[in-house]
Write a structure and sequence with these properties.
9 strands; 17% strand; binds NADP nicotinamide-adenine-dinucleotide phosphate; two-stranded parallel sheet; Rossmann fold; alpha/beta
């Protein structure tokens, strides 16, 4: 029976991942900021077979609370087999170009608070000397584009942080998996037109995530074809790239 901690448990992707663990009787510690929706997620997981679900309600961008939160999660589950960082915000790029405070607020949620939480989590995982940490980044972190580079820069910073953390924790028996979804049909992307083969459901992405957390692979692009797409995007020379409207 897996003991699973999810930060940002009301995320559509996180819920789809949690459902897959629930059918195998996992025990959960779920953190999110919306109490009503978190209770609904917890109830759903119990119905699907979770053996225990504990919840914590609060703002995950509030870094001073992270040490106590991670300690609580570790004690509630008596050890953590798998931890998933799934919360995040998709800022309006145009607003962030004119409002530095708004830009920094999103960097705070998507990068700084993840660094804080992962630092606390690493201490817990090193002490127990086992377990897997999954961090949801994004393909947007692979190359800065005019349409979403504020968000992309946070995910890019997170990717390098996770890479270094993986390097450090490997010899301590802890695996760290960076998850890079492409376009996923969730509330975060509600404003986007969602047709075409590039869009995936949270459930499809969740299947890939559960497999990657099980194998402890370094980086997951999900669905798989994003690895090739982003390879091409990264290889386009700047003198061509700057003329493309992306
Ligand atoms: N959807 C995509 O196309 C896509 C692509 C690449 C990467 N991702 C990443 O996937 C992850 C999950 O997103 P999603 O697609 O599942 O979207 P989602 O359903 O909108 O989930 C985002 C979650 O983050 C939570 N959150 C944001 N700020 C928070 C804070 N300060 N404290 C606590 N919770 C906070 C939201 O809570 P509230 O509902 O209470 O606001 C929500 O549950 C994110 O890291 C996102 O960047 C998504």
């Amino acid at each position: 029976m897996k003991r699973v901690v999810i930060f940002g448990a009301t995320s559509a992707i996180a819920q789809a991942v949690a459902r897959r663990y629930a059918v195998d009787g996992a025990r959960f510690f779920l953190a999110a900021r919306n109490a009503g929706r978190l209770d609904a997620v917890a109830a759903d997981l119990r119905t699907r077979g979770a053996s225990a679900v504990e919840v914590w309600v609060g703002d995950l961008a509030d870094c001073p609370g992270h040490a106590a939160l991670v300690d609580l999660a570790g004690r509630a589950l008596q050890g953590v087999d798998c931890a998933l960082l799934a919360y995040g915000t998709l800022p309006d790029q145009k607003t962030c170009e004119e409002d530095a405070a708004e830009a920094l607020r999103h960097i705070g949620t998507n990068y700084s608070s993840a660094v804080s939480l992962l630092t606390q989590l690493a201490t817990l995982m090193c002490a127990q000397a086992y377990g897997t940490i999954g961090v949801i980044g994004s393909v947007a972190g692979d190359r800065g584009r005019q349409s979403n580079y504020l968000y992309g820069s946070a995910k890019a910073g997170l990717a390098v942080f996770v890479q270094g953390l993986r390097h450090r924790l490997w010899s301590r028996g802890v695996r760290v998996v960076l998850i890079k979804p492409g376009f996923v049909d969730t509330p975060m992307t509600a404003a986007f037109p969602k047709h075409g083969p590039l869009w995936a459901s949270p459930d499809r992405v969740a299947g890939d995530i559960v497999r990657a957390l099980g194998s402890g692979q370094a980086t997951l692009y999900t669905p798989w074809f994003w690895r090739g797409i982003m390879l091409v995007i990264r290889l386009i020379p700047d003198f061509i790239f700057r003329r493309i409207r992306l």
